[in-house]
Amino acid sequence: MKARKKLKVLVLVDTPGTPPTNQDFSQELKTADWETEAHVLEALKKLGHDARMAGVYNEPGPILDEVKNYPPDVVFNLTEHFNDRSAYDRNVASLLEMLDLQYTGTGPTGLTLCKNKGMAKEILAYHRIRFPAFAIFPPGATIRRPRRLSFPLFIKPLKEEASYGISQDSFVENDEAFEERVRFIHERMKQEALVEEYIEGRELYVSILGNKRLRVFPFREVVFSAVPEGRPRFSTFKAKWDENYRKRWGIQNIFAEPLPNGMTERIARICKKVYRVLRIRGCGRIDLRVTAAGEIVVLEANPNPNLARDDEFAQSAMKAGLNYEDLIQRILGLALEPQN
Q1: Strand, coil or helix: what is 271?
Q2: Considering only CA atoms, which of 283, 285, 281 is closest in space to residue 108?
Q3: According to the model, what pLDDT value does residue 78 have?
Q4: Which of 34, 74, 173, 302 has a CB 3.0–4.6 Å from the CB of 285, allowing a cystine?
């Protein structure tokens, strides 16, 4: 398809170090690590937009230079970090707002709420949305399991994403393992540890598009077909990103098997509410589990989800009849809508 109006689009991306002065990423765009950036850039060009790319690492100069020399109509924001800190992605969005630029995805408020999982849970509690019981242990705190939390428990870093910092050792069944994993996050990851009750059940990913009017796409489900019965099933970093590990344990992301009558609608209503109260904008994905008793338990909300063609969000959109170029155009259009 061709876009209705040709736009000057600045595609803002993360770089693993100081970006090159010439900002030439032609070689990087051929690699698997830059798949999302390559797919989005290709789609924008197919749509007829004038797309440029700028890389960001640890200082805002490249953004300021690009905006001054080639003022964009809209920024397609693909950044997830700043100076290797995932929690600082909100500051990139804040800078774009201070420059009075329209940009895709969630703003600084939503990014702050979603990235701080403890804060997000407090908001969900206020709105009576079910989530795992939890406790937060900052570095230096006494490491003692609260009585309200019963084993098994699941322990992860408070401010990370994409399952970073999650391994088989994140699942603990006794106080010794509990203390060891909390201490590991404090010492190795230099941040708070989030301790949650482990929820047994089907794990679903619910992709949502929109600002005020929300569209829920067909659900995706992660299955663990080769994990022995009775063993915990959850997505570690390897389970998400290591293909050999996924094959060994039969881990697949598929479209969700049919749900009991009314469950699909209940999940959609809850996920829309989560999306709104956590101030997600443009697009987002809500991860949840459905227990054998039919209880819907929200695990986390992901603003600005991965937009590669073969990732969960785009796959769900395509299942709903929205091809990849149409999806990218819709995300651009949402960025240009008034925010009030």
Answers
A1: helix
A2: 281
A3: 97
A4: 302
Looking up tokens 């996924």 gives 246
Exposed / middle / buried, residue 1 (Cβ in 10 Å: 0-12, 13-18, 19+): exposed
Give the DSSP letter string of 188-227: HH-SPEEEEEPPPSEEEEEEEEESSSEEEPPPEEEEETTS
How do residues 85-108 score in pLDDT, each as one tens digit? 888 999 999 999 999 999 999 999
Detail the DSSP E strand segments found in 58-117. 74-77
What is the rounded CA–CA span in Å between residue 319 and residue 330?
16
- For the chain, residues classed under CATH 3.30.470.20 are 112-130+200-335
Q: Which residue has the tokens 């049919």?
A: 258
Concatenate the DSSP letters of all residues of 125-190 into one string.
HHTT-----EEEE-TTS-----TT--SSEEEEETT--TTTT--GGGEE-SHHHHHHHHHHHHHHH-
Of 55, 62, 54, 44, nearest in space to 8 by CA = 44
What is the rounded average pLDDT for all residues in the chain? 92
Residue written as token pair 């640890």: 58
Q: What residues does CATH 3.30.1490.20 cover in the chain? A: 134-197
The two three-digit tokens of residue 52, written as one number: 């440029």
DSSP reduced 3-state for 299 = strand
Asked if 15 and 52 count as a contact pair (C-beta separation under 8 A), the reply is no
CATH architecture observed for domain 134-197:
2-Layer Sandwich (3.30)
User: Closest Cα partner for 111 from 128, 92, 138, 133?
Assistant: 92
CATH label, 8-104, candidates 3.40.50, 3.90.640, 3.40.30, 1.20.1730? 3.40.50
Range 112-130+200-335 has CATH code 2.40.50.140? no
Cβ-Cβ contacts under 8 Å for 212 (sequence gap 6 or more) = none
Is pLDDT of 186 > 70? yes
The token pair at 141 is 């705190």
